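If it is no trouble, can you show me the amino acids of a protein and the C-alpha cells describing how it folds?
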Amino acid sequence: MSTIKKATLSFALLTATLSLCAQDRSAGPADKKYQAEIKALTDKPVIKKAFQTIIDLEPQTISDHIQLTEIPAPPYKEEVRAKQFATMLKSAGVDTVWIDKTGNVIARRKGRGGGKKTVVLEGHLDTVFPEGTDVKIVHKGDTLYAPGVADDTRALSVVLAIVKTLEKNSIETDADVLFIGTVGEEGQGDLRGVKTLFSENGPGKIDSYIAIDGWNRESITHRALGSHRYKITFKGPGGHSSGAFGLANPHNALGRAIHYWAVAADSFSRAPGMRVTYNVGVIGGGTSVNSIPFESWMEVDMRSESPERVSGIDQLLQLAVQRALTEENKMKQRGADLTVDVKLIGDRPSGALDTTLPLIQRAMATVQSFGSVASLRVGSTNSNIPISKNIPAITIGSGGTGGNAHALQEWWINEKGYQGIQNALLILLAEAGIAK
C-alpha cells in the first residue's frame, strides 16, 4: 500500500473513530468460560481446515462480491439482486432457499437438532443509492470503488463464503441455520425486511440473530439506537404573492415549527439522561418566488437508545407543530385555515442486551482469539428488531477496510478480509453448535 494511501486510510479511520467514540465501549476480556469454549473450537482440526478453506476461497469470494455489487439494489427495488443471491446460495449448498413476500432471500441449512433452535446469519441486500446510480466496480490498485461495495454487499459475499466453507468441510450444526439477505435496512426501508422475519409471516421462531453490516471486525453492536422519522406537511390554498396576500403561508408555519422544536429539543438533549439527537434533514415546497405556497414540508429524525428519550423528543415535535399551525392560522388576514399532515415514515425500536448473554460473550471471545479487543457499541441496524424483543442479537463487521459509506466514492480494501469471514464462522458455530 502506498504512503499516500496509508495516510488517507489512517485519516479515514481516525475520523470514523472520533465520530463513534461516544457510542463505543471497550469490551475487555470475555468470561473465561467462553474464552475456553472458543479456544476448544479453534483447536478442532475441522475448524483449522475451515479457516484454510476460507483463505483458499478468497478469489471466489471477491468475484461474488463484485458480481453482487454490480447488480443495482436501490431502496424498494432489490428484486434482481435478490434473485441472483438466491441462486448463489442454492449453488453453495443450502437445503432450501426462497424469497418471501417482502423480498427477503431466506436459505435454510438444517441442523441435527431436529429444529429445536434456529440461528440467523444475515446481510442486507439494499443500498441507499437511487435507481440509475452507476454501480460498476472501479479498481484502483488494491481498492474497490463502487456505491454499496462496503455497505453492505461485502456482507453478502461473507454469507456465501461461510455456506461454501461449511459444505466443503462437511460441518453439520446442531441448530438450523438461516442464511438471509434482507431488504429495507437502509433509510426509509425502515427495517421492513427484518420486521417481516419476526412477524407471523416470518420463517418461524428465531433464537439467535447475527447481522453483518460494516467492516470493522472488532465491532459488536448489541445496543439498538432507536429512531422516529416523520414527514410533516403544512397545507393551504396558495395563491399569488400580491393578489392573494393575507392567506396563511405554509412556509411561515414550517419555519415556526422548526424553530420551536429546535429550541425545545436543544434543552431536552442537554438535560441529564441517555443521549438523544434530533435533525431536520429535508425541507421542500413552493412553486415560485411570487407565489404563496400551497404546501411546505420537512422530514425529521430523532434517535436514542432510550425509548423514553425518543418519546420525549417526539412529543416536543408534536407540540411545536401544533403551536406553529395555531399561530399561523391566527395571523392570517383571510382565506381558509392551514392544515397539517404528520406522517410517521420510520420507526426503529430501541433496546439493549446484557453483555453476559452467551452470544455476546462468544463474539467477544472470538474477537479476542484473533488477538484483538472487542468494541461494544450502539447502532441502528437490522439487529434493532430482535434486540427490542429481547432476542439474542448482534451486528458484526465483515472484515477488510472500507470508507465513504453511503457516498458515490464508497470503497473497500481486502486487507486481511478473510479474518472477518473466519470471525463470523466461529461466532456462528459457537452459537449453533457443531453436531457430533
Summary: The chain is about 40% helix and 25% strand. The first strand starts at residue 25 and ends at 26. The chain has two domains: 3-224+350-432, 226-348.
